Amino acid sequence: MAKILINGGQTLDGEIWISGAKNAVLPILFASILGTKISRISNVPHLQDVTTSVELMAQMGAGISIDERLRIEINPSLLNRHEAPYDLVKTMRASILVLGPLLARHGRATVSLPGGCAIGSRPVNLHIHGLELMGADIQVKNGNIEATAKRLKGARILMDLVSVTGTENLMMAATLAAGTTVIENAAREPEIEDLANYLIAMGAKISGAGTHTIIIEGVDELGGADYEVLPDRIEAGTYLVAGAITGGRVKITRARPNTMDAILDKLAEAGAKITCGDDWIELDMQGRRPKAVNLTTAPYPAFPTDMQAQFTALNCIAEGTGVITETVFENRFMHVQELQRLGADIQLEGNTAIIRGVEKLTAAPLMATDLRASACLVLAALVAKGETSVDRVYHIDRGYEIIEEKLSQLGAKIKRIQIA
Ligand code: EPZ
C-alpha cells in the first residue's frame, strides 16, 4: 500500500504534457478483438486500468505485447477463451467492454456482472438490452452474463439513458452484425468518436459518432489498425484546476482543447485567464483567488461528471458560494466528508453540494474513495496549510499517470511513501 504526502501552500507554475485518454484506450484495446489482423495502439497512458485490460486480454489468449514506449501490439487471432472473470472485472468495471467484441467476433462471451462501485450501482441493463435487440441470447446467472449469438443482426436501439460504455459496447458489436444498426440517444463523448475512428481504420462502416445518432453498417470482417489514442481531457482538466486552486499558472501540452469547452468555460468563470493553441492550453490566475462557480454535471458536451469532484475542491477556497449538482451518478459526493476534514464548509442536500468558500484549509489525514475523488483530495491538499496524507492511492493510479512527477514539475511539494 502507498500514501501520498502533500505540503500545501505552493503556487503552481510550470508546464506538463497530457497522457492518452483512459476512457478511450480501454474500449479501443477491447475493440481490437473484433479484428483478424494485428493492431498497434500508441499514446497509451501507464495506468492500472490499462494493465488490467492487458492482463484480461492475455488471459483470453490474445497475443499482446507492450514496448518501452508503451505502444501495445495485439494479435487478436490467437484469442481462444471468452471469459472475463470476476477477479479482474471487480477491479475494473470497464471490463464489461469485452462483452460486445467477444460476442460479435466469437459468438459467445461470459463476463462477470460488474458490481457497483463507490459512486453508484452502475447497472449494465442497457448493454444487455441492446445486445438482445441484436439477437443475442443473454442469461444472467451466478453473477455472470452468459451471452451467445450465431451472428448478431442489425437493429434500431433507442437508449433509455445516455450511457458512454453502453453506446461503445453496442457500437462495437454492431460492426460485425448482419445489416445496419442505428443507436439513438447515443452518448457523444469524444472517447466514443475516438473509438469509432479506430474501428473505421479497421474497416468498420460507422457514421454519426459524436452525435446522438450513430449508424453502423455491419461488415463480414475487420482487419487491424495502427492508432494513436486521443489526449485525456479529464487529466487535462484536473491539472488546470491544480493551477487555478493555487492561484498559479499551468500550461498543458499534447492536449485537445476542443474537447474541453465546458471545463474551460467554468475555469474562465472562476477568474482564470485561458489561452489555447491547437494542442496546448495555458491557465493563468495572475495570483488571484478563484471565484466560486455553479455547475451541473450532464452528458457531453455539458459539464463532465468526472470533473465534478475537482471543481468541488476549487470552490472550497473560492470567493463566494458555489452550488454543484451531480445528475449522472447517485453517490458521487464521497469526497465531501474528506474535504470537510480539511476545514471546507460544504452542505449536502440530495445530489447538490453548497460550498461556501473559506480563506484557508488546514492539513489532515485523508482517505481516497474513488478515482476522481482521490484527485480532488490531492488538489485540496495543495492549498491546505501543513502536510496532508492521502491514503488508498491505488484509486489515483487507476486514472492518473505519474501524478506526483507531474505535480512536482509544476512546483508542488508532493511525494509517495510505501506503507506496510
Ligand atoms: C463512463 O462510465 C466512464 N468510464 C466514467 O468514467 C464516466 O464517469 C461515465 O462514463 C459518465 O461520463 C469509462 O468510460 C470507462 P454511463 P459508464 O453508462 O459508461 C446509468 C472515470 O472516473 N446506466 O455513461 O459506466 C449509470 O448508472 C469513470 O474515469 C444505467 O442505468 O457510465 C449512470 O447513472 C467513472 N444502465 C448513467 O447511466 C446502463 O446499462 C451514465 O452512466 C448503463 C448506465
Give a concise summary:
The protein has 420 residues and is α/β, with parallel strands linked by helices. It has 14 helices and 26 strands.
Residue share in helices?
A: 25-40%
List each distinct ligand once. Answer: ligand EPZ
Question: How far apart are the first and last residues' alpha carbons, in Å?
Answer: 6 Å
Which value, in Å, is the CA radius of gyration?
Answer: 21 Å
Task: Count the DSSP helices.
Answer: 14
Largest sheet: 4 strands, mixed
Low-confidence stretches: none
Strand order, main sheet: write it out.
Answer: 23-25-1-26
Mean pLDDT: 96
Q: From the helix content, strand content and strand pairing, which structural class follows?
A: alpha/beta
How many beta-strand elements? 26
Shape: elongated
Binned strand content: 25-35%
Secondary-structure topology with pairs:
Layout lengths: L1 E6 L5 E5 L4 H10 L7 E4 L5 H12 L3 E4 L5 E4 L7 E2 L1 H4 L9 H8 L1 E5 L12 H9 L3 E5 L2 E5 L7 E3 L5 H11 L5 E5 L5 H12 L3 E3 L5 E5 L8 E3 L4 H13 L3 E5 L7 H9 L3 E4 L3 E5 L10 E2 L11 H9 L4 E5 L8 H8 L3 E5 L2 E5 L4 E2 L2 E3 L3 H11 L2 E2 L1 E5 L2 H4 L5 H7 L3 E6 L2
Parallel strand pairs: 2-15, 3-14, 6-7, 10-11, 18-19, 22-24, 23-25
Antiparallel strand pairs: 1-25, 1-26, 3-5, 4-5, 7-9, 8-9, 11-13, 12-13, 15-17, 16-17, 19-21, 20-21
The structure holds ligand EPZ.
